[in-house]
Amino acid sequence: MTIPLQALACHGICCVGSCNRRGRSLDWKNQPSVGGAKTFRSCEWQQITILGIGILKNVIRQLRPHIGNIFWSNCNTGIIALTALVKSVVFVRLGSKELYGQYLSVLAMVQLLSLVSVSGSRTVVFRAIAQNYDGVYRAATHFSFVRSLLGVPVLLGVAAVLYYVMSPVVGIGMAVAAIFFPFVTSLENWTSVLKGRVEFSKLSLANLLRYGTGLIAVAAAILLTNNLIAVLLTYFVVHSGFNVLYHVRCLASARNTEVDPGWRRQSYALTTMELSHVIFGQVDILLIAALLPMDRVAVYGLVMKLVAVFLTATKSTVEGIVPRLFRSDRVTVGYFYKFFVLSIVVSVIIAWLIRYPILWVYGSAYAELIPYTRLYMLAIPVYFLFAVVSHLMIKHQMNREINGSTILGIVTVIGLYVVLIPIYGIWGGIVASLLYFVVQMMAGLLFLRTRREKTGDPGGRGFSAAC
Hints:
By secondary structure, the chain is an all-alpha fold. The protein has helices at 5-9, 18-21, 35-63, 67-94, 97-113, 121-130, 135-148, 151-165, 168-185, 190-196, 200-224, 228-252, 263-291, 294-327, 337-353, 355-362, 369-376, 379-395, 399-424, 426-455. Helix 6 packs antiparallel against helix 7.
């Protein structure tokens, strides 16, 4: 096939070398057979290099409007991920695997029951604030807080069972979690206010104070007591206190009292959507805790924490673009495909290098984390596209499709966990988690494609000028 240099120039690529001046074609048949072959190969590599540079410049140009938000959004999630990672090191170095496993098990149950607070309202607040419906925050948070009270007796019941069946310490720890449950679930909505206002720098500072204080307090509790009850009490007091403080500040800073009339309906739909995510993130830990020793829970939890550093960075990168995406009328998922390819390259590089930080941070005793972590790193590019697709569905208020995708995800992940974890243990949990992202991503892409075919609106290939 003949590809003239002029064709490349049409795409903004200019060759400065002799190959361009002579107007040569990339047709092998028309090249000199002796000395000219070497010159042609040089020209070919020159063209490939210039093409690659041109593509890179185009990607950077399209990212430029979002760089500030992406930077601060990544700072925010970097703080959260880093403090979680440091906390895991504190548990490993100052506590024990068993203590860390117990701690993860209690938090997993709290996260699972957070659904009763209609946790999807948090994403609705994000969208509503970005669209200047500030009144939604007060209404949605009150709505969420009242429903979160239903989780208190449930957690107390679980605590009673655990006290007699598993361990008195774990049972009392679950009772502590029940007391603070409404304050660590529904009052978390203030983070969505700052995201919707594109105040990622303020959010980063607030979370630095919150998670930094929590980390120091938990480390002190581990060092002084090495007791699960003291650790959980410290954790919940700190996070509840900060949530109350920032909730009051967000109420005082409301810019208007406008309310989107569809916020409650979409809150239920998005809670259904989160159902699969919560089950994905917590049921695996609870199932491993039920079937395997607590030290295995700790190992699995460490793998999840390590990869979560990169998954949260991916999520925050997407969230840095989302406010513009919500306001734009011309955007399709195709705009993000180039970044999806880039994320594949990044994940491969990270998987290759991850052994060194694991050995340095946790020590050679935790070398078994390396193969688990490398496999789970494959989730990064899939999660990136899944996050994009999810926000596009939220933007178009595709509530029925969101519910369908969620039901599919729930059935898939529960089935995979139940089948794979009892047989393969940690490996089964990791493979099931990977397949969950793949199924959710493919379902979302299918629903978006179906919507485009029904509405006849192809959208744009990128952000519009108004965006």
